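Sequence, please.
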């Protein structure tokens, strides 16, 4: 699936996002899977399976009298292409669930499948491979390196992969193009607004061409206007085929999602559909700055 890039790449010599899309898609399609030479054994995603399946998921921290059960039997199914907002009060289990979905933690009991693969059956290296190949992460705090440019921040995941400088630049510019920030590629985070910094963080998550974007409170540090910009960007990326899973405390932002999952006391309390249409007006919150 080639994703249509945003038209913000004017004036960048040699930058042809359409060609990058084609090359990177070819690389993904021809990448070795489990059981083939050069791939970790035991990891063979099923194209026909739901993207995510959670059945009876529990998670307990600590032992004995100090044990705390954060999840008490979570059942959840997420299809490819969905935009899911996860909501709930502190201690409801939403963050623990997102850590499991992001393959950053494993459940105590229950079954968690990603594209038909039972994640608990994978060893740590295989879970790391799954995370690197299919998942992108966005955090509330941006987590950008302050002394490096926007482009260098975006390139960082590819540096860890061992890609060449030219490959990193091409992919980094393409990701910045997706979020409309190519003209700011050489700017440091201090030279960018909060909304622009979050766009850089989103571009960094996109640079590996993930299937799923996991966003933890992506608008938590932004005012209302910048929050709407970020949510409309996520909506646009979702329309291009990226599945978005987002934790938020803000009901107005959750309404951008197609599906809203409410957690309480370690279980899924209810699931509903989002109702807000991207672009519809939203009254600024009290005290919010432009």
């Amino acid at each position: 699936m080639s994703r249509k890039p945003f038209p913000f790449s004017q004036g960048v010599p040699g930058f042809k996002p359409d060609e990058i899309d084609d090359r990177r898609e070819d690389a993904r399609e021809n990448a070795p899977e489990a059981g083939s030479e050069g791939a970790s054994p035991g990891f063979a995603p099923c194209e026909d399976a739901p993207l995510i399946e959670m059945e009876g998921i529990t998670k307990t921290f600590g032992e004995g009298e100090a044990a705390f059960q954060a999840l008490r039997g979570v059942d959840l199914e997420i299809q490819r292409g969905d935009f899911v907002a996860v909501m709930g009060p502190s201690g409801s289990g939403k963050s623990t669930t997102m850590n499991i979905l992001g393959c950053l933690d494993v459940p105590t009991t229950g079954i968690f499948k990603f594209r038909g693969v039972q994640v608990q059956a994978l060893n740590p290296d295989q879970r790391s491979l799954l995370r690197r190949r299919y998942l992108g992460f966005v955090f509330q705090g941006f987590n950008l390196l302050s002394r490096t440019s926007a482009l260098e921040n975006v390139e960082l995941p590819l540096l860890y992969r061992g890609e060449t400088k030219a490959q990193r630049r091409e992919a980094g510019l393409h990701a910045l193009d997706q979020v409309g920030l190519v003209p700011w590629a050489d700017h440091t985070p201090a030279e960018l607004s909060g909304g622009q910094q979050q766009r850089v963080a989103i571009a960094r998550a996109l640079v590996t061409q993930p299937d799923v974007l996991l966003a933890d409170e992506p608008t938590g540090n932004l005012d209302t206007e910048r929050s709407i910009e970020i949510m409309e960007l996520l909506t646009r990326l979702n329309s291009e085929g990226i599945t978005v899973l987002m934790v938020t405390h803000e009901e107005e932002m959750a309404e951008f999602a197609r599906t809203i999952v409410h957690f309480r006391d370690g279980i899924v309390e209810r699931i509903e559909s989002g109702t807000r249409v991207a672009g519809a007006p939203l009254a600024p919150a009290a005290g919010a700055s432009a």
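The domain at 17-30+80-95+135-273 is CATH 3.40.50.300 (Rossmann fold).
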